[in-house]
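Cross-check.
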Amino acid sequence: MSELKPIAIQLYTVREALAQDWKGTLEKIAEKGYVGVETAGFGYAGSVDVAKAEFDRLGLQVVGAHSPLPLGENQSEIIETAKAAGSSNLICAGTGRELFGTEDDIRERAKIFNEANAVCKANGFSFGLHNHWWEYALINGRIAYDILLETLDDDIFFEIDTYWVASSGQDPVTEINKLGNKVSLLHIKDGSTNQSDDMLAVGQGVMDFHKIIPAGTHAEWLIVELDRCGTDMMTAVSESYDYLIGHGLARGNA
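Predicted model, tokenized:
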């Protein structure tokens, strides 16, 4: 690859460790060499401001914030929290499977995402979508995300979870290439791709990241995320870093 992408971790991965010792967990992540973090709430620290101060102390960049949609009565709070987190990327972590059941459902979600995008742009954020497997399921013979794109604003970016794409039966490389410069972030996880199985450290499953990562030419970051793990999570976080760095697939600080 011509230029290695920096490596971050989605903090949802280490939520249990954060609940036990959040400062110590962040210190281990920084010491390992992770360049950045992606947030998914700040309950472990008590507030976004306290968490951000620790990120800054450790030199961890905030890649993006997984967040509720900035709509409705909590809009101001959501926007202010995202601003305090210090990232320009506000990301919808996912939409319930039942909201992607029909073509009409998908088009309705696109309208809501467009509303959220307008609010984000008005407040200086880029708005993005993170997928699970059902956004790549077939609806009347068509991939759900392809239907979404017909109504979705062109400037909404995608954070492609490559593992969930594969678990849906689609090819991550094909999907990344299809979306092109709309893919700003890549989620990296490994395992069997069976939707009910626990995940494994990157490099210990069936995902071919030697093909997947080079396809993401427009992606700015690689973000390790293990929703659940068949081994010790902190060990898997360390092993994932070692694999990506050791195989020349990512750039770290160590």
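The mean pLDDT is 96. The chain is about 40% helix and 15% strand. Passed to J.P. for a second look.
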